[in-house]
Design a protein that fits this description.
Layout: H1 3-29, H2 45-65, H3 75-103, H4 110-137
Helix pairs in contact: 1-2, 1-4, 2-3, 2-4, 3-4
C-alpha cells in the first residue's frame, strides 16, 4: 500500500464509512415513533470536523510518542501542519456548532428551509470535509 492509499483509507475512508453509520444511527435512535428520515440526518459538518481534528491529534501522537522513533528531518513540518489542523479544526468546529444553533430547525419551511439546507447541508458539510482533508493531508507516511 502506498502512502497516498494509506492516507486515503485511514484518513478519509474510515471517517466516511463512520459518517454513513452515523446517519443510520441518528435515524434508528429516534425509534419507532418517528421512523422517517430528517434532513438533519445528513448534516455531517460536526462529525467530519471532529474526524479531522482526531486525525491531526493521532498524527501528533504518532510523531511525538511512538516508541523507538526519532524525529526525522520532515517531522517538524508535519508537526506544524498537525498543530495547525488541530487549532483551526477546533475553531471551525465551534463555528459549525454556532451555525447549527442559528439555522437548524425541522419546522423551517420555504425560504428558511432553503437557507438551512444551504448553510448546514452545504457550508458546514464543506467546512467539515475540508478539516477532514487537512487531517488526511498532514498524515505521516
Amino acid at each position: 500500500m502506498t502512502g497516498f492509499e494509506y492516507r486515503l483509507v485511514s484518513g478519509a475512508g474510515v471517517p466516511l464509512v463512520l459518517a454513513v453509520l452515523g446517519i443510520l444511527g441518528k435515524k434508528l435512535a429516534r425509534g419507532k415513533g418517528n421512523p422517517s428520515w430528517r434532513r438533519s440526518d445528513f448534516y455531517l459538518g460536526v462529525e467530519f470536523t471532529l474526524a479531522g481534528v482526531a486525525a491531526a491529534l493521532i498524527n501528533l501522537l504518532e510523531i511525538l510518542l511512538k516508541p523507538g522513533k526519532n524525529l526525522a528531518p520532515g517531522d517538524g513540518t508535519l508537526l506544524m501542519l498537525n498543530f495547525g489542523t488541530l487549532f483551526f479544526g477546533m475553531l471551525l468546529f465551534m463555528f459549525v456548532l454556532s451555525f447549527h444553533q442559528d439555522y437548524e430547525d425541522e419546522k423551517h419551511m420555504d425560504i428558511a428551509r432553503k437557507k438551512e439546507l444551504k448553510m448546514l447541508g452545504g457550508v458546514c458539510n464543506a467546512i467539515g470535509f475540508a478539516v477532514l482533508l487537512m487531517g488526511v493531508a498532514s498524515t505521516a507516511s
